[in-house]
Amino acid sequence: MTRHGLHRITRFRSGPRRKAIAIGVIGGSVVAGIVATMMPLLADDDLSIRAAADTTATAVPQDGDNAAKTTLATCATRCDGNPRGARTAVIEFAVTTVPANAVNIRATLRMHAWQQFAATVTAHASPLSAREARPPLVSPGVVLDSIDQVAKGVNEWDVSKLVTGNGTWTVSLAQSGLESRIYWASVENRNPDLRPSLTISYDLGSRPSPVTPTRPAPPPTPSTSPTTSPTPSPTVAPTRTASPSASATPPAGCGSVSDKLVPSCGAWWGMYSPAGASGGWDHGKAVADVEAQVGRKFDIVHRYHDFSNAGSNGAFPDAYEVQQMREGRLMFFAWESRDFSAGTTLKWSDVYSGRLDSTIDAVAGRIRATDTPVFMGFDHEPEDEPSKGSDADFVRAWRHVHDRFVRAGATNAVWVWTMMGWSGHYSRYAGLYPGDKYVDWVGYDPYNFHVCNGSTVWKSPSTTIGGFYKWLDDNGVGAGKPRMLAEFGTNFDAKDPSAKQRWFQDFPAALKAHPKIKAAIYFNSPGMTTRTSTCDMTMNHDAAAVAGFAQAGRDPYLRQPTGGSR
Length: 566
Fold this sequence. Notes:
It contains eleven helices and 23 strands. The chain has helices spanning about 30-35, 285-295, 310-315, 320-325, 350, 355-370, 390-405, 430, 460-475, 500-510, 545-555; strands at about 40, 45-50, 55-60, 70-75, 85-95, 100-115, 120-125, 145, 155-160, 165-175, 180-185, 195-205, 270, 300-305, 330-335, 340, 345, 375-380, 415-420, 440-445, 445-450, 485-490, 515-525. The strands form five sheets. Strands 13-14-15-18-19-20-22-23 form an eight-stranded parallel barrel. Strands 1, 2, 6, 9 and 12 form a five-stranded antiparallel β-sheet that branches. α9 links the parallel β21 and β22 (about 485-490). The longest helix has 17 residues, at about 390-405. The protein is elongated.
């Protein structure tokens, strides 16, 4: 989670949150026996997707104003006295977050008009490109839906015949019955709530097994993420803990892991759980307590370390991590170019200058000595570290650290390049990528912050993880590399107490719909948020949340027979 404020988590309002249907919440116990074998599980939230591109198709020449238009236009064949003045609005949507097991998909196009008109506007499947400026008119495609009165405000068309799942879908709007232009808000409109959107709802083809919530054990006292310079952690001998028992059958054909720690199917399930002074800085117990709550060992344990090369903060792997590796867990070391205890931040030029090579070599030697593959990261979320240098400085520092490890023989380090994944930094990610030779996994840190960042948006798991996933696909950065949710998390909804539990229950389906994600690690700390009556990003803040998270961890997709979940 970023150190600097919450600017990176303010996303556009992605449309109103709607319940697909109330039967799963209200009166469910009355009708469950009747419908359990008759209907699929209903999706909890609609997806609201902003248009990727739009344009107005017309034979009318441009008037000389080539600036981006904040409106689209429709008009009949004869328009404003011009017998060839027709205009058609063309809108493109990129749908990427519909789960693979979605059925009964329903899609609604929503467009904003500023006035009421007596006109018929018909939605068609469009053969035109919405990315072309003023393309010529062509014969419209299949009729999808029609309205015979344009309302002031939002107008809707059922486009389910076209939108059948993930893909790129283009719709055109053709007008008749009124020979003057109607204007609609476009993707360039400065008010995001007015822009074209596509609302998708669906049912899920299988019903999750029921869960009876149980009261969790008291959670470990959370501490601030190490990126906020915590009090130094003294090294204390770890206490061996018994492994929680669990049973699950992994999918057929699973069980092998590549030399870069990629499971042959499914995904690793991991946890960052901070230790604190009240618990004696016992990093082993901090993880074991959560494992006891959810009834399984985690495949991956995530820890943050600094460049001090001393104590549990910098002399890693420490005794806790050595013990966790002996017990079958994979370690993910997030190495930060700072000194937590001193509260100092290094510059990337300090790293690649050679001044810190003795520290780099010492850590590389200890990693080599583990004689087991470990995940290794350098300065996660560098796009949020302007004081450390330029993007080019980061790349140069990353490569320097990587090369020192190779020179030291620490080839068991598996390198995870971790970004925030925020759309506001999309233009920078190609320049922050060190290159395929230096990266083994691509990681990012998606969150459903809800009101923790002053918003009202509740994002489903698929929406939460889908944005940067699609950007990576579209832009080819790290192509072919496995992907990791190096951090992820969700708030709760004070108005819907079961929402967080359902979010966790739905999470495995979201991973299955994004199969390049091969590891997911929960960030069980408030991080840069503040616990309030409406904000708590930890997964164990109440019994229902723990029950939902435990159910997710029992999904066979997350039960690797070769990892901690054995």
